Fold this protein.
Amino acid sequence: VEEKAKIRVVHDGSNGVHINHRIRVLDQVRCPGAGEIRTIMKDRAECGLGSFAILGDISKAHRRIKVRESDWCYQACQLEPGTVWLNKVGTYGMGSAAYWWGRLAAAVIVRLPLYLSSPAFLMEVLLYVDDVLFLAACKEGIVWIGSILLFLVALGVPFRWDKCRGGTKVEWIGYW
């Protein structure tokens, strides 16, 4: 797929090798959308609260998932006769990569910060694949999100700092 600054390889383990045509992920991850954001904003407005957003993007999220060697054969791709390519890590387009990335990210980027925070901070964390939205309703919450970001970086979460931003009015995954 041609993008502005790069070409993204979309790989589903089926090109030329015909091994993954019947794979289906049965318990799919549901990502937040307009309904969740609208509900959060409405609830906060009814309480007389605003929101401050901090947005982040995780670098090469799908490729952070290591695949055990015995499963490399299920991520095969053939571009020309005689050469079969195997991916050793999760790959954009491969359903299993999204499956395992979703579970890792939900635990580390969403659940862990919520477990560590105080309910008084009124913090929300929404994750859409590799795009995270932290919402704070008070000054202490904004400071806490900064602390959470520092903690996540210390754990090794690879943020793309050029895509991180914040404010009271932001665009996140197409929503304003």
